[in-house]
Amino acid sequence: MLAVPLSGCASATNYLDPAGPMFMGHAAGAAPATVELRVVTLNLKFGTHVERAERLFAATPQLAGADLIVLQEMDEPGTARFGSGLGMNYLYVPSAIHSTTRRDFGVAILSRWTIDDAKKIPLPHRHRFRKLQRAAAAATVRTALGDVRVYAVHLETRLGASDRDRRDQVDEVLRDVDGWSGIVVIAGDFNDRDAAAHAARAGFAWPTSHVHDDAAVMDVDHILVRGLCAAGAASAGKARDDFGASDHRAVWVVVRRCDAASPPGRRRFAVFRAKAMRVDPGEFGAKEKDLGGVVDPDHQHRDRAGRSET
Predict the structure, then answer these.
(1) Could you tell me where the DSSP H helices lie in 30-187?
(2) Which one of 3.40.920.10, 3.60.10.10, 3.30.365.10, 1.20.1270.10 gives the CATH number of domain 32-261?
(3) CA 292, CA 251: separation in Å to the nearest integer?
(4) By CB count within 10 A, which of 96, 103, 153, 200 is most buried?
């Protein structure tokens, strides 16, 4: 492990070793037997309110049964606490010591099943000003549906990098995906929609494409999948946060293997195409009413508060 401080008082201290650091913990009980995967992504805002996030997950049915969780802006103690509280194994990969908190800043994968083949993927393009270099986390999760390659991402912000830079960061993840022929989940904070659309154009389904305003009025938190399809109606959404856990809303999706996803007549997740910017309402429920404030495509509970630039 090599940490190199960069010049300037507001600069991050990056972990430059492509092999680490990485941390793993084990808190899961008996592996669940299920034909569905409930996947959640949440940017926890510097991991400040882990206890509130635990309460949020416990109180929200769409989150409480999560099988895979991807977290951003975490440190290892916060990840370990969250994993222990939810009874999940975890992989945590810090990118750097953040210049604001002076604590580790990175992404995590949590699972109810065994996590193997952990990998750090350094991403190109440092932040323009604080010089932070981000890294994605990758792991193989031994789920009841078979092995799933999971990628946790937190791409650079709009202030810190260009749209092209974020697409380059997605491409770095996709290069790693090329070596995997099975099921894939890519989830996290993309810091815009364009980067998620870029992954979709590479052949991934984008089941959360209709979920809006997950970070104030921005659409930044996304889940993309390959080899998985919708488990049924209302299979994706965002969770209302009544606990003040973060400045982001947790985004979730429920998926199955495509050969067992839906009864005849129900369409599978469509791959987003650049020329089809509107999502078919019948596909992803884009016109569903707000179900208890959780699925909120019509923006009935928009949070207009600002968010810090991280």
Answers:
(1) 50-59, 61-64, 76-86, 163-177
(2) 3.60.10.10
(3) 15
(4) 153
Delimit the domains of the chain by residue range. 32-261
Per the DSSP assignment, residues forming a β-bridge with 183 are 148
Q: Report the distance separating Cα 256 and Cα 213, nearest Å.
A: 26
Structure confidence by residue, pLDDT tens digits, 220-250: 999 999 999 989 878 999 999 999 999 999 9
Collect all residues with Cβ–Cβ distance below 8 Å to 124 and sequence separation of at least 6.
Answer: 165, 168, 169, 172
* CA angle centred on 250, ends 247 and 251, rounded to 5°: 130
Q: What is the pTM of this model?
A: 0.83
CA atoms 74, 181, 123, 140: torsion sign: positive
For residue 266, what are its two tokens? 């129900």
Max CA pair span of the chain: 60
Which residues does 78 contact at the CB level (< 8 Å), separation at least 6? 44, 47, 50
- Nearest-angstrom CA–CA distance, 180 and 164: 25
Q: Backbone dihedral region of 124: left (phi > 0), alpha (psi from -120 to 50 degrees) or beta?
A: beta
94-152 pLDDT, tens digit per residue, is: 999 998 888 999 999 999 999 999 999 999 999 989 899 999 999 999 999 999 999 99
Dihedral sign for Cα 304, 50, 166, 134, please: positive
**Positions of the chain with pLDDT lower than 70, given as ranges:** 1-9, 260-310
DSSP character string of 68-90: EEEEEEE-HHHHHHHHHHHT-EE
For residues 259 and 304, give the distance between their C-alpha atoms in angstroms, rounded to a whole number: 41
Spatial distance between the Cα atoms of 46 and 15, rounded to a whole number of angstroms:
17
Which DSSP category does 55 fall into? H
